[in-house]
Amino acid sequence: MNTTFLKDCLADALITLLEERRFEEINIHDIAEKAGYHRASWFRNFKSKREAVTYKMVRLWDNWTATHGVTVKDEFTLDNAVTFFQYNYEIRDTLRLLNKRGLMPEVQESFIVILYERHHDDAERSYANAIYANALFGVLKEWVLRDFKETPEQMADIVSQSFSQ
Q1: Sign (positive or negative) of CA dihedral 136, 138, 139, 140
Q2: Is the Cβ–Cβ distance between 129 and 119 less than 8 Å?
Q3: Where do the structural domains in the chain lie, given as residue ranges?
Q4: Which tens digits make up the pLDDT trace of 54-97?
């Protein structure tokens, strides 16, 4: 069996269960059963439910960027800000759910996984990515709290203006 497929099934099952119950009320048995696998499959692939949420967010980004032909997907620049906000707008229901269940730190962790993966040995790039990842997460969290009232293009303009001041 393909490990990625199995991990996707387990993470998807967790997200589905989050629609019905609070994060703390979901146990590994529930997730494995929902996914159609045994508990052992869970423990071979994830250390925690939080890790599975972060994994799911990274996979959503990877799938979205592949589908939309995004070539620069592991760094943020003002030039690709619209892409970032378009992606988050398209997954807004998932973001609303994760916010409702108190899982925005896992969204933030996914930013770090995406942005740090290839540049960790370059100090300047690492610090720049830390600034972008944490600043963008703050902006995204506020956008979620404001229920996505602004368009992705408006959000990109807001960020661009903020970084240019």
Answers
A1: positive
A2: yes
A3: 1-46, 49-164
A4: 999 999 999 999 998 888 777 666 667 888 899 999 999 999 99
